[in-house]
Amino acid sequence: MEKCDVCGAQCLHKLCMHKVPIFSSLSQDDLTHIASIIRHKKYQKGETLFSEGNRPDALVIVNEGSVKAFKITSDGREQILYVFSEGDFFGERNLFGRQVSAYTVEALEPVKTCSFTKESFHELLHAYPEIAIKIIEELEERISRMESALQSMGVRSIDNRISALLLDFAEKYGTSVPDGTLIHLPLSREGMANYLGVARETVSRKLGLLENEGIIRSNGNKSILLLDRSMLEASAGKSADF
């Protein structure tokens, strides 16, 4: 890990401040003030931002890149819980009590972060209570998505869940191109398997079937071209709400 030499003003105009929904209601002057108290860091691919059981002392915002949050199961497998990308935040547990981190966070690619210490963030909440409301809304959405994912494990087939995951990635990481939607995958095939709790071979088989059906087209290991969204939604069992 290395500290970033980007100044607050550059952060404000280029990156994190305008990407983060929790700051969306603030004025330009307010954003300038907040940018002045942000800490900046850089991480290399595979580097750990913090580990399960640690006590994070900051709210961390992903400025560039993406990270995975995961736990190691009792049988030694990696279970991915979240993928956080630009504008997402984590580390909030210890800001509202002395709680340890429930997961490890690791960089999936080179990552830049903006963070606030616990003390500075509490000052922000007192000065701008609307930020607290935005955080509650985001955490509620996160819980809702996790509940939907857990429910889908019991009522939807693995094929449904893989298709739904692709739709979720298309919404968050997709770019419109002439032939469809180019999905820049935040996870490898193995990472997708760890996210869904299935074997890597299962993911590869399903992707192969979708490609044979003309629904997607593989574009190397880093991206997939979604050719037919409606067919993928049908494969997922319903419209994307995964």
UniProtKB/TrEMBL annotation:
It comes from the Bacteria. Keywords: DNA-binding, Transcription, Transcription regulation. PROSITE patterns: CNMP_BINDING_3, HTH_CRP_1, HTH_CRP_2. Residues 22-142 form the Cyclic nucleotide-binding domain. SMART domains: cNMP, HTH_CRP. InterPro entries: cNMP-bd_dom, cNMP-bd_dom_sf, Env_Response_Regulators, HTH_CRP, RmlC-like_jellyroll, Tscrpt_reg_HTH_Crp-type_CS, WH-like_DNA-bd_sf, WH_DNA-bd_sf. Residues 156-230 form the HTH crp-type domain. This is Crp/Fnr family transcriptional regulator. It comes from Caproiciproducens galactitolivorans.
